[in-house]
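Revision sheet: structure tokens.
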Amino acid sequence: MRSYEYRKDSIACYVFCSLFLLSFVGTILVFGEMSGNSIISSIPNFSWDMMIKWKEIVEIFDLK
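Predicted:
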């Protein structure tokens, strides 16, 4: 049995990696907005009309 648990080190690593990833992506987004190239606007908008309806699911899988 291990006498030393790596739980604290693991949590610290996850926190550091998460903060690093958020700051990296955040920096890219901020500088993209500052340069006039909005990166967020290139993501397509989601419409609820794009969702498949239960009626169509029943027809596709023949769940009558």
